[in-house]
Design goal:
Length: about 750
């Protein structure tokens, strides 16, 4: 491809130049809804469906849909007041039901559900393809039931939502003519300030948006007002990512916050005090959160604090390591004190993934070599030296800590509060426990935490421990495939720079290591997102249990592999930073190392190995296609980034500069171009068979990059390049179970045809 000369920067900045843009013969496809462009999409869809949508596909799709629509799967719930709320889709309700039940009813095999909102009926009545995106409740006055909620509805499954006030008791939206809140479709967020006031960040009604397409302002909206009339409370720079405004209504700790989200990894947080915004002074890459009187800190890089007091010790200049968790009293910190308690310190194998507060305890969800561990901390009880125990992750002088014994190896187990503000039902220290594994159907448990000294039947804590935990199974998901026939192994590949990269292999117990097994390798490797063990009936049915023809004497099933490459969060922020921007190549070297390890171990061969990824994972497999074509026979690439020269100008792409770099800056384009698949295609290369899929309504990545990549590959005469674009579904590619089943089946069918036939 030829390139133009470097463009001069806009007037007013004469000293800078913009990196050259390579010639793009497919730029016409960037008109997402143009008639000619959609005609091209329809032609591509018909071609792909003719190839893939055969009798095998129909059976595959039906099997996946049966899993997704199963009435035996767990209906996960959220507690508000005395009710437990759930959103549910099945065959009879493809768009879904928002409903609730009591705890006693939920415990039964067949709960009695009170339907609040039927999205299928709403869509039919309003002639709009609504997709339910959740509801935000107004905290009622003490002793009163929850009644009002702002319901979020997307017209096509994209990130832009319409927010409408809903009266739960009357089962209806509050009419705007009666003062009901009804906000136009836009990107943003909504938070209740009080019964008659919302805090809103939105791009609707002329409110300004950032270069990333998100809200730039936060406003205070009163009943009867339009957004354009609302008082503007908060505004950020146009080049920053987004503005957020929110109110914490915890009784006794009511607070209003605003966040200037500079980019994906940097924020400034402000607290409303005396009619003005008070910044909480931390480096922008230190994540903070509040709970009652506590302020928690998790630095993404090492944080040097001058004159810090740590765990009650002497004042000193202190460096807190990236990925640790610290606590301080919020008011003391705002007053200038720098007195911290160290709650968790990572090591080379263990990282903090998330945390959740019950009323009185803090629960930490950890990964150790990508297997879950859980710790429970009691802020009311300091830890004496040595009490924490080996590997507990707390320093002497911290909060009392105890492990939660609920995490089998090679499983993902997460604990989070049921309702930390529940006082009336004494459920404030209850927690949910969700456990899953590649061959272990999901189990939902509920438990209670109490301080040591209290006793409870079924306690899992050892004698003398700091916190007592009791938990029991509430619901279990059924098996959707013969999971007992398969085993999960963890292996470590060695990347180009010597780094050991873990990966999970799920395969039949009688797997033959002769290189002949169809193998699907999945990965992500970005934005500090961790890929953890998870049960998938769809993968079990469509890949593990599928069998090759027995012409050679033995029918083989598929092998499924998940790679935990750098760029992800499996080992904390350092694992992510190791593949940022100019170091991006490490993520791709890691993935290629896993592929090579699978081949070297005899699990598969190049002819039997394919890879699949979506979004940033689509960029990952796009780089496997263009940089490592010799390792793969097939690539399934979904809702992808692929044109890294123009990605900042497309949909929400500008918001990811912190992850990938700015291609307009010549020095940064020099490294970005090395992982821009759209610009790495060359004549004379034997590329893997390729399936690129996307969604017209994806307003995050957008369909444009997928379209252009497929068009360029086909124009180059590269054989076996297929493209499919759904109209609905947003970045997920599907807005209901039927669409999700078709999407998954098409990808699995493509890979199986390429690798097993």
């Amino acid at each position: 491809m030829t390139t133009t000369a470097a463009e001069q920067s806009p007037a007013g900045d004469p000293g800078k130049t913009t990196a050259p843009e390579p010639v793009d013969e497919n730029i016409w496809l960037e008109d997402i809804h143009g008639e000619e462009q959609l005609a091209w999409v329809r032609e591509q869809n018909a071609r792909t469906e003719e190839l893939l949508d055969d009798e095998d596909f129909a059976g595959l799709e039906a099997g996946i849909l049966e899993v997704l629509d199963s009435t035996d799967r767990i209906a996960m719930v959220t507690k508000r007041g005395s009710h437990y709320y759930n959103f549910w889709r099945d065959k009879q309700n493809p768009k879904g039901l928002w409903r609730r039940t009591s705890w006693e009813s939920y415990l039964r095999d067949d709960p009695e559900w009170d339907v609040l909102l039927d999205i299928d009926a709403l869509a039919a009545a309003e002639d709009e393809e609504w997709v339910f995106h959740g509801a935000s409740f107004l905290r009622p006055a003490e002793g009163q039931p929850y009644r009002l909620a702002m319901v979020s509805l997307s017209p096509d499954g994209g990130d832009a939502n319409r927010y409408r006030e809903f009266d739960i008791e009357q089962r209806r939206f509050v009419d705007p003519a009666e003062g009901g809140f009804d906000l136009p479709v836009a990107k943003g967020n909504v938070s209740w300030l009080d019964a008659d006031t919302l805090l809103v960040a939105s791009t609707a009604e002329g409110l300004p948006k950032t270069t990333s397409s998100y809200a730039r302002t936060g406003v205070r909206l009163s009943r009867g007002q339009r957004l354009a009339q609302a008082e503007r409370l908060f505004e950020i720079a146009e080049e920053h990512m987004m503005a957020l405004v929110a109110h914490d209504s915890t009784p006794g700790f009511e607070r209003t916050f605003a966040v200037d989200w500079i980019d994906f990894f940097n924020q400034r947080t402000y607290l409303r005090r005396d009619g003005a915004w008070l910044e909480i002074e931390v480096p922008t890459d230190v994540n903070i959160s509040t709970h009652r009187q506590w302020l928690l800190f998790r630095p993404r890089q090492d944080w040097a604090v001058a004159g810090a007091t740590v765990d009650g010790g002497e004042t000193a200049d202190t460096v807190f390591p990236a990925g640790c968790l610290l606590a301080a009293d919020l008011e003391d910190y705002l007053g200038g004190a720098r007195s911290f308690t160290v709650l968790f310190t990572p090591d080379e194998r263990t990282s903090l993934q998330s945390w959740s507060w019950t009323r009185d305890f803090l629960v930490l969800n950890l990964l150790s070599d990508v297997s879950s561990q859980i710790l429970v901390l009691d802020p009311a009880r300091p830890t004496a030296a040595g009490d924490a125990g080996e590997g507990a992750g707390s320093a002497p002088g911290g909060w009392a800590v105890a492990p939660l014994d609920a995490c089998p190896p090679l499983h993902d187990v997460n604990a989070y509060a049921v309702d930390d503000e529940d006082e009336s039902e004494d459920a404030g220290n209850d927690f949910w426990l969700v456990a899953t594994g590649f061959t272990t159907p999901t189990t939902l448990m509920r438990g209670t935490l109490t301080a040591a000294g209290s006793t409870a039947e079924g306690s899992t804590a050892e004698a003398g421990t700091a916190v007592v935990s009791t938990h029991a199974v509430v619901k279990s998901s059924p098996s959707f495939f013969n999971d007992a026939d398969y085993e999960v192994q963890q292996h470590f590949a060695v990347s180009a720079d010597g780094t050991k990269v873990p990966y999970f292999q799920i395969a039949s117990k009688d797997l033959v290591l002769d290189g002949g097994n169809p193998t699907q390798l999945s990965g992500y490797g970005g934005f500090e997102v961790s890929r953890t063990p998870a049960y998938s009936g769809a993968i079990g049915r469509s890949w593990l249990e599928r069998r090759t023809a027995a012409a050679s004497g033995t029918a083989r099933g598929g092998v499924y592999v998940v790679a935990n490459i750098r760029g992800g969060g499996e080992y904390g922020p350092a694992w992510h930073r190791a593949a940022l921007q100019e170091k991006r190549h490490r993520a791709y070297e890691d993935f290629a190392a896993v592929a090579q390890d699978l081949i070297s171990r005899g699990v598969t061969s190049r002819e039997r190995l394919g890879c699949v990824g979506g979004s940033n994972g689509g960029l990952l497999v796009g780089n496997m296609l263009t940089r490592y074509p010799e390792l793969f026979a097939a690539v399934s690439c979904g809702v992808p980034l692929l044109d890294m020269r123009r990605y900042t100008k497309l949909s929400a792409g500008y918001s990811w500069i912190a992850e990938y770099g700015d291609p307009d800056v010549p020095e940064q384009w020099e490294f970005i171009r090395t992982f821009s698949p759209y610009h790495l295609l060359h004549d004379g290369v034997e590329y893997p068979e390729t399936f690129i899929w996307t969604s017209t309504s994806d307003d995050r990545v957008g369909p444009v990059q997928a379209r252009k990549m497929a068009a360029r590959m086909q124009a180059m005469g590269i054989p076996n390049v297929w493209f499919h674009e759904t109209l609905e579904g947003g970045h997920a590619g599907a807005s209901d179970n039927r669409q999700a089943a078709a999407l998954q089946a098409r990808s699995q069918q493509f890979l199986w045809r390429a690798l097993a036939d």
